[in-house]
Amino acid sequence: MKTKNIFILITTFSVMFLYEIYISAQQQQQFEVIWEINLPGWKQMPIIKNNKVYFACPEEGIGGLGIVDLYTGQVLGYAQVGMTATAPFIVGNYIYTYDRDNMHEVDLNTLQVVRNIIIENSCYTENIPYDEETGYFFVRQAVDYKGRLTAYRLSDAQIMWSFPQNYEGGFDNHQAPIVVGDSVFFQATNAYWQGKSVFYRINKRTGQLIWETELGPAVNANGGMNRGGYNNPIYDEDHDVFYVSESWNKDSTTGLKGNCRFYSIRRDNGQILWYVDVSSRNIESTLTYYDNVLYVPLHVDGGVGSYRAVDVSSGTTIWEQTGFFNEDCWSATAVCDRYLYRTAHGDQSSKLIIQDKKTGDLVWAYDAGGDRGCCCNPVQSDGIVVLGSTDTLFAIKVGDGDNVDSDWHGYYHTGYNPGAIIWYSSVTTPVKLSLYASPKKIFADGVSVTTITARVFDANNNLVLNSNPYIYFSITGAGELLGSTTVQAVNGIAKIVFKSSTTYGTAVITATASGLQQGTANIVLMSTGSYNPRPIISVSTRMIDFNKLGLKQTISTTFNITNVGQSTLYGTITDNADWLTVDPTTFSSNTVTVRVTADNNILNKGEGQYSGIITIDSNGGLVTIDVVLTATCILTAPNPYTPEKGLLTFFGSGIVPGKTTIKIYTLSGELVKTLYSSIIPVQTGIQEINSQFRENNKLTEITWDGKNEVGDVVVSGIYLYVYESPKEKGIGKFTVIDR
Fold first, then answer.
1. CA–CA separation, 545 vs 547, rounded Å?
2. Kind plus residue range of the DSSP H or E element containing 602
3. Looking at the structure, do residues 619 and 710 belong to the same domain, yes or no?
4. Which of 477, 496, 526 is the last residue of a domain?
5. Is residue 590 left, alpha or beta, with left meaning phi > 0 and alpha meaning psi from -120 to 50?
6. Considering its fold, how many domains does the chain have in total?
7. pTM over 0.70
8. How far is the C-alpha of 338 from the C-alpha of 424, rounded, in Å?
9. Are 632 and 601 within 8 A, CB to CB?
């Protein structure tokens, strides 16, 4: 294993000393960079889906969308789509990435852009939320520092609503909107324009205002104004509140940035529960929440910032830690039961950093090389943390975990992803149950299901392996639990399946066990009938290779068309080659099996490879399938054959001079004659054995005089021939008749 420089912070007599030490390979295995990859542009805003990492690569002219394997870092694809810097999202067989002017729809099979949705006057945000229930995505727009929030319908790129309807001052911001329940929430600060600094709740279907909460003053005492950076709001489901922050106030006298606030705001009515003033620092990145603690990056332009842990019940500070490597503390963090994960930003020797979440102490650091710090929001799955540092994407193996997908910056943007990182213990005392659902949102269609996982934890959030209690699951709200609601844990884990009803809302699953604190998990049941969802086409193959096909032969195969979106899929199926046929040629169904036939009677061509294209044009997208076959065979002429009239000729591209054998049999399997396309030595010298071969105009032939091995003319009937050459093996038949 390649050794790395690891940095550990040691506290002695209240004095902090930084030591650079060399540690053993065994110690390094606790935290290990398992891969790092470099593609054009910064590595920003990753998500994890089905063991793959998708991330933005903003770079003028060559930027795009990168895809790598979560476990190996192998580059699986790169779609060059422009100056994209926003976290992608996936719907069915398509991935959507945003480059400030266009929302690109990219086919996951081909990585080709199949549709561009033009976003006029777009304003960059780190995440574009997509809402499965409505089929809308939400973008910020701005003109001359005036802005609005707009909902686009993904299926047909129609604008559904804008809030406010016209561009207004105070709405030109870069904070990402966030969708929770029936609403979309977003922050608007004045951004160099005289206006409000407000947090809004908007009905996600209609764009109607539900409530607004004014934050700090739009203009401070010295005439400066609040500005929102990339400090996106996050949602704390445990307490049903949002954590919202201002980026900075600019002092009109000194021109310096500094001073800001962060807030706890109730989701139901917009009440501010508390806020904290921060002096001489600002917040430029997303906050992080887990287990009753809020983690706040406090940035200093050109200086050394800090990270602060805050009790979410009151906003009081638990700890605050100065940046370790002369870092300005811009970057957002990811969090799990034990640690915080992030990159150092603003230093001249960029680091990947792991901190103790309870104390803020430095636990581990990795030299990423060069001045490469950036503000990429980390994501987690299966014991792996993925984070970017300017031009490189890194993966750190930090523990064990479940294979769970991760949206941008985790669950509700909090930096936490349930089940992603787990530690084990078999010697500690079990204390509580921890629950999570995967997926957390399903449709209220009476069919959709999700899996609830209950884990037995100790006081330090370790999974207790030797604790196997009976766990009792119950439900509040619509839906049902499938099977027995009493499940005995195995190695500290028990699972149960929840099935949706046709009533939308929230179902709460509770797990209890004797002597343990209960655990709960919320499942959102989304409405299915209130929008016009888009069908999305998926095909089982993009290439059909019929391989070798003889003259006058036909061959067939099938492929499947599936709707992985909503509604009903319909369309037409066509081909561009006369030797191809498809059946059916039209369809209106969410599952279709298509038969494709290649007919060499129609092709009737000599050696070579031939290609065609099948086109499926549907309301769920346009898909093409390439079809190829190779005409290599050995045929006979004339057929039927009369020996008294001349020679029977075996010909075709399958014959290789000097390397082809043809054996002729009766239908009963008796060998009649063996022919060779070569001159071979025998005891009497060199002679031509029963065949003649020649190449004229690329046609290779072997001829036969109609006689068997002893020189007698064969009788009338049907005969088989078996041929073998370096090109192919095969069987054919011909008929012998009297004159």
1. 5
2. helix 600-603
3. no
4. 526
5. alpha
6. 3
7. no
8. 12
9. no
